[in-house]
Backbone:
């Protein structure tokens, strides 16, 4: 079962305290924002990060000074747009994490963010393609279903595209699904979540969690909660923001997985990446279980045949939406 193959993820939610085997420079673009600040804090605490490069349009010096007082061995540097700061921030980076963009507000969908965040991701991806083309690019900025294709097209234009190194971070969906099941069962398990990273494209595969028994009503309610869990946070924050702390945790976890893989570990994670699983349906990006290696994605694993008919129907509906959002991202990037 897919969840059984993911057992290696359990028991390592906190970062190892052992010294990093290899030097790793990680950049956070949007480091002074609601996600960027707690994400940068978590990365400062990660011993695998030897140099942390922070970039944002404002407030970066303060965040940098604050983090630099934390007694871990990593060096922290901060940059703003002045004096070509973006490219200075990216120079020599092994991993670039992009949470930059505007947060969701009440009544706002991820698609509503497209008009603003698409341009931000395009420009940041262009700088990455020119400055650190071999870095692993981890995209958090929503809507991920469109921003990942945008980044890919930018790298293609620059002639440095490697689909194994561009990731949409969907880890928060997995984290939410795991937490919601824990609230019900008292067991902390990994729940495979596939598809995309918005609404009905988010597909938790509860059928793959060994020993989990749900009524149809429970399954429907939990599926909906995972798909629209972000709305709970937006509503609870009453206009002051969206899911920042949980997203920072998820982003730090995925970054840690990437760093572990670059240091030679065999690592399995879920991510929104380019693959051929549903290319016949016109969908070139799909979040699935991937094996990570030193060069990025080492292997893309298909969905198991044992998923339920209910989940197969969810996949079919998601593919229709994923085709639309991919097209939207590609058209934006190629028309710019």
Residues:
């Amino acid at each position: 079962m897919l969840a059984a193959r993911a057992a290696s993820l359990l028991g390592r939610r906190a970062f190892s305290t052992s010294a990093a085997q290899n030097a790793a420079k990680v950049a956070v673009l949007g480091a002074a924002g609601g996600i960027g600040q707690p994400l940068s804090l978590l990365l400062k605490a990660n011993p695998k990060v030897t140099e942390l490069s922070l970039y944002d349009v404002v407030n970066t010096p303060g965040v940098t000074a604050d983090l630099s007082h934390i007694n871990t061995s990593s060096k922290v540097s901060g940059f703003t747009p002045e004096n070509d700061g973006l490219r200075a921030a990216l120079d020599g980076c092994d991993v670039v994490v992009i949470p930059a963009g505007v947060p969701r507000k009440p009544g706002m969908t991820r698609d509503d963010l497209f008009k603003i965040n698409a341009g931000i991701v395009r420009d940041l991806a262009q700088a990455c393609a020119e400055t650190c083309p071999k870095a692993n690019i981890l995209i958090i900025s929503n809507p991920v279903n469109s921003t990942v294709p945008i980044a890919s097209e930018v790298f293609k234009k620059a002639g440095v595209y490697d689909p194994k190194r561009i990731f949409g971070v969907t880890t928060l969906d997995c984290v939410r699904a795991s937490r919601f099941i824990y609230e019900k069962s008292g067991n902390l398990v990994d729940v495979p979540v596939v598809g995309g990273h918005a609404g009905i494209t988010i597909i938790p595969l509860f059928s793959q969690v060994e020993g989990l028994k749900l009524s149809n009503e429970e399954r429907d309610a939990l599926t909906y909660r995972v798909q629209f869990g972000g709305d709970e946070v937006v509503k609870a924050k009453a206009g002051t923001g969206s899911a920042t702390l949980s997203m920072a945790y998820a982003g730090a976890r995925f970054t840690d997985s990437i760093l572990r893989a670059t240091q030679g570990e065999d690592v399995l994670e879920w991510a929104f990446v380019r693959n051929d699983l549903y290319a016949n349906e016109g969908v070139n990006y799909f979040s699935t279980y991937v094996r990570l290696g030193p060069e990025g994605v080492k292997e893309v694993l298909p969905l198991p045949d044992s998923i339920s008919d209910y989940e197969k129907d969810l996949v079919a509906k998601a593919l229709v939406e994923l085709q639309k959002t991919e097209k939207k991202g590609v058209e934006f990037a190629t028309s710019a």
The CA atoms of residues 101 and 156 lie 22 Å apart.
